[in-house]
Design a protein that fits this description.
- This protein is mainly α.
- It folds into two domains: about 180 residues, Up-down Bundle (Growth Hormone, Chain: A), CATH 1.20.1250; about 200 residues, Growth Hormone, Chain: A, CATH 1.20.1250.
- The protein is about 80% helix and about 0% strand.
- The chain starts with a helix and ends with a helix.
């Protein structure tokens, strides 16, 4: 009788190993081209505002596509939807590599945004094959795989830029093809019981009712608003970082990929080595403030940074700050609700984050097009300073009032 659990555990581990390999290849391909898409827009004759609009297309599409893809995978299975979304991503990367006019660039972002919700399906797959008591740990492994992809993708992209500007896009397409082959050959279907029908509701896309319900609690409202402001300040800078670096320090596309790889390396290092020791010595709130001050220092330093090598100093603090702030805010968010409401609160937070990702590239493009380049980090620094103020007034006081 003891052989059965061992066999099940072996099968369980194999499926997770395969899905982690698939996730790694997906992030590897995406991160190898992520910093180059804004530069491609500039090369095709767009101004900064138009580049911001193109960047927003993907986020707008994902806002609608992710929950729909998740529902479809409940009805038709994880494997078919994973193959469909991966194929769409493959086509999107190929179009980016072939893009010689703006319309092909827009088509590439539309195809990948509307149909390529790979992470949504892969996360659902992990949930299917993982025991609830192990799920947090397994999602932690998934996050580590994500981080590893963010390290190696920009490194590979920087090397491929030696060949041509389009080479990283074709590499990303090849990596997507590899992930498709892995799914076809090695990945079994995880969903044993499928939904009999699919129902789409507007609430699945924008959870307005849930948001209103959670906002009635002063504590939850404070954390959600703080998280939104963090996302807004971070994405305002990071989505237009390539354009900022090109203008401010005259960085080449290859040098910009070096920056992104450095951020990826340090973020994984900080999250795996520093967070737990810091939390053992000081409280969660102090650690959070430390991360926010690191972000403020980053943007303040970038205002005056005009040398390629100097920029590595502030972006090191950026990696440290994001490595602290996001996990702690996520922890506070999930602790503020009952266990059975965790999925709902994370869904609301993801929707708010999607809104930030839609607005910030456009705002960043407007700033870079019509104002001084230094205004971008100035505004980001102001936004993160606002978090300190909101943490004092919206969270600390609201918790005291509710208690």
């Amino acid at each position: 009788m003891s052989s059965i659990p061992v066999d099940q555990e072996e099968k369980f581990n194999k499926r997770l190993l395969i899905i982690f390999m698939i996730q790694f290849t997906e992030i590897l391909g995406f991160s190898s081209v992520m910093p180059l898409i804004p530069l491609l827009g500039i090369e095709l004759g767009l101004n900064y505002v138009q580049v911001g609009l193109v960047l927003s297309i993907f986020s707008i599409c994902q806002l609608f596509a992710s929950p729909i893809t998740g529902k479809l995978s409940d009805r038709f299975g994880r494997k078919p939807l994973l193959l469909f979304s991966q194929t769409s991503t493959l086509i999107g990367f190929l179009l980016l590599g072939l893009a010689n006019n703006v319309w092909i660039l827009i088509a590439a972002r539309l195809v990948d945004g509307l149909l390529g919700s790979n992470m949504t399906v892969s996360q659902a797959y992990i949930s299917d094959v993982t025991d609830p008591k192990h799920r947090t740990k397994i999602y932690g492994y998934s996050s580590a795989v994500f981080g590893a992809g963010l390290i190696f993708g920009p490194m590979i992209g920087s090397v491929l830029l030696i060949i041509s500007f389009s080479a990283p896009f074709f590499f990303a397409a090849g990596v997507s093809l590899l992930s498709i082959i892995l799914v076809i050959i090695f990945l079994p279907e995880s969903l044993t019981k499928k939904e009999s029908k699919v129902e789409f509701k507007f609430e699945d896309i924008l959870p307005i009712k849930e948001t209103k319900r959670f906002f009635k609690s002063a504590e939850i409202r404070g954390v959600l608003i703080t998280f939104f402001i963090y996302s807004f300040g971070f994405f305002l800078f990071i989505t237009t970082f390539s354009l900022f670096a090109q203008d401010q320090v005259h960085a080449t596309p290859q040098e910009i990929t070096f920056y992104m790889a450095w951020i990826g390396v340090l973020r994984v290092l900080f999250q795996s080595v520093l967070i737990n020791p810091i939390l053992k010595k000081v409280s969660e709130n102090i650690t959070l403030k430390l991360g926010i001050f690191a972000m403020i220092f980053t943007f303040a330093f970038l205002i005056f940074s005009t040398n390629f090598w100097i920029v590595f100093i502030p972006i090191s603090f950026l990696a440290f700050g994001t490595g602290l702030v996001r996990p702690i805010l996520t922890s506070k968010l999930t602790k503020s609700v009952k266990r059975e409401e965790t999925g709902s609160i994370l869904g609301v937070n993801n929707a708010l984050s999607s809104v930030a990702q839609i607005v910030t590239p456009i705002l960043g493009g407007l700033i870079l097009e019509f104002l001084l380049t230094q205004i971008l980090p100035i505004i980001s620094a102001i936004i993160f300073t606002l978090i300190i103020i909101l943490w004092r007034w919206l969270i600390v006081r609201s918790v005291k009032e509710e208690n």
